[in-house]
Amino acid sequence: MYANIVYIASSKLTLNFTGQFSKNKSALDQVNMPDPPEGGFFAARDYDYSNMYTYSDLDYSILRSGVGFDYRFSPSVIWTAGVSYIDLKDDAGGYVYGDETGSYFTVRAGLRYDF
Amino acid sequence: MKTSHTTNRFVVLFLALIVLVTSGVVRADYTYSLWLGSHYTDFNDYAKKVGEFNRIGSDAYPEIGFTILGSTEDNLFSLDGQFYDNKNAFANMRLRANNRFSMKIGYQVFRKQLQFDLLDNFNAREAIGKKAKILSHEALDSIMDYGFDRHQAEAEFELMLAEKYDLKLVAAHRFIFDKGDEQKTSISHCYSCHVSTKSAEVKRLTNQTNLGLEASKGDVSVGYKFSYRTFKSYADDISFFYDEAKNPVSGGDAEEFSSREIYNGKDMPTGIYPDIRKYSSKVKFQVDKGKHLLNGSFSYSRTKNDVSNLDNVVVGGTVKYTTMISPKFRLYAYGALSKTTSNDVVYDIPPWREGRTGGDLDIFDYRRESSLDRLYGKGTIKALIRMNPKTRVHVLAGYEHIRRYDYPNLGSESATNTYFGEGSIRFRDGLKYKLSAKYRLELTNDPFVSYKGIFEKPGADILKKENGAPNIYYYQRERDLRYQNITTLPTIKHVVNLSGNYRASKKVGLNAGLKMTIDKNTELDSLTVEHSAFQPSVGIDVSAGNKWVLNTGYTYSYNKSTGPITVVMMDG
Fold first, then answer.
1. What is the model's pLDDT at position B130?
2. What residues contact B570, with CB distance under 8 A and at least 6 apart?
3. How far apart are CA B39 and CA A110, in angstroms?
4. Is the complex ipTM higher than 0.90?
5. What average pLDDT does chain B have?
6. Full set of structural domains in chain B with CATH
7. Which residue from A102, A105, A111 is facing B45, i.e. has the nearest CB?
8. Which residues on B lie below 8 Å from A106 (Cβ)?
């Protein structure tokens, strides 16, 4: 789901808000593997498939949010600033790459001059 | 390194163009925009996933951006660029002068983070009495920060040679250069079941050059284009050590196990990139008679991989005819035909169990036939009908044929035929609302099978020791024991797409949609392969006076697949 808001506070000031949240899950149904035949060359077979279906589970949630403004000092000079925060949560158990949970925060500002 | 020279040439060219502008060669009124700023980024916890295309670091970085734009009726010049940080930057330039010359140049660099496979998910153990085999793994170096910088640049030029025939010379060049580090993994399977990993340098270079001529006279236009593309890795090959041949449980019988392997007990290059050169020529034409439009092309391409000695040739053509039967009725016909051939690669494998009792079997030499060898044909006919000013309908019917040669064995031949049809209706009432519905059906006979007989029934009563050999070996296969063709391709597929937009007032707009796909293969002998995808969405946009604008929405996506699961164990 997502939401974006632009608010024109005045002829000089515009505010913007953005938000997006996504949840992604992927899983196998329980896999019922047949038992290996008894006896034979191998005395023991440690084949346990009971949790195999969980190995490819994916369970991510991602939040992307931001707020910023444009302030027009004059027709040719605009001050822009904003912050954004992106947060990823990995609830799958850390297979393959380990726990991928992480986030980052960015503050950005600058001046634009048109001439 | 050639690439850095190429990059430098682009930088020099950019600077020269700025000089051109400032010297007034492209005469126009210019506007300039300059952006100066900075950003601070702070990463927490695991950054490789959330910051996949970022420079990862908790620090501040200055930024600069610029735009130059100048245009007249006949001339155009634009230059824009952004330096975000040393891993994310771009610049683009566009120039057009009196319709006699135009060019576009662009350069971009970005970072692609690669993750480190911990190899932690392997878990298997087999035992004979107190002796056992387990699958182990190790990282052979401590570098785990993988990723590469991608530098890509494109340039397009168009030069008018003779206005009488609208004769133009067109040329383009593109390069992509990846530089960084990546993870390579190797599996040693004899004395130990051992997976190891180490880092490798990334230096991949893709170059593509196009050169062509285009001309037109009256209703007819023609063109020819030659393309040359290369891909090559300039990184040093890396090697992994492959186990000495021994009995995996007892550690003995070195001679016996050595006789079953092509190589053992030494380092071997692993994960080698292809070295590809592709040449192609394409002739295109168009005849425009107002209500009737005919265009088409004929192409020839040859691709060589010098590492594996593969040689692939594709010859094909397309033709498209469009006619306006009435202002309310348009008809489109499309046809394509191509033939793909690849050379066979011959593998010379040492004799099986050389010098051993019942051995010296020189039976593993083989020709690898290509699954690419095929004749491909496709034809569609589409009608677009405007029922009334508000309603538009389209119907399409088509046929696709793929005939494969010499796969999987020399002399084999198989064909896949797909019949498809679709229809849609779109209703639009000014800006008030718009509704559309589309349905597509595909029926396929004999979809491509990637493997025939992947499963094997127990065969102790059928398989026998050969040539006085002491054991039955894994290479021995009995056709009667094998079953199950493998494919994930469907024989029937339904696609539904519904969408609607409704403007409730000047301030409120609503939209909703549904995409749905269901497919199934009904021809497999013991497996069920089917897929379904379901994606509804809703959205709303609201404006309040001249102050607020809000748009929000929700999308749900559900995908389900049913297919085979195969578990590979150390002893099959």
1. 63
2. B124, B126, B133, B135, B189, B193
3. 9
4. no
5. 88
6. 40-61+90-485+497-503 (2.40.170), 487-496+504-572 (no CATH)
7. A102
8. 39-42
